[in-house]
Design goal:
With 73 residues, this protein is mainly beta. The chain has no helices and six strands. Strands 1-4-3 form a three-stranded antiparallel beta sheet, with no helix packed on it. Strands 2-5-6 form a three-stranded antiparallel beta sheet, with no helix packed on it.
């Protein structure tokens, strides 16, 4: 991803019949990339690497995604 660009992550909560499928996304460093908590829309702010974590509201299960942001050419 380049600075200024946005991408949207998606997460699947299993099992399919789970009663609470609510999730929240967080960024390990908002100065490199921000993320919309409920939507998973990641926006590059500055060059570097950041970990985006998604956590289930019910059960606190997590998954991580490493995002590399590069300077625009």
């Amino acid at each position: 991803m380049v600075v200024g660009a946005s991408e949207t992550l998606s997460a699947t909560v299993a099992p399919e019949d789970a009663t609470n499928k609510n999730i929240n996304y967080t960024s390990s460093d908002d100065s490199i990339a921000t993320v919309t908590p409920k939507l998973g829309k990641v926006t590059g702010i500055a060059a570097g690497e950041v970990t985006i974590t998604v956590t289930t509201e019910d059960g606190s299960f997590t998954a991580e995604c490493l995002v590399t942001v590069t300077a625009a050419e």
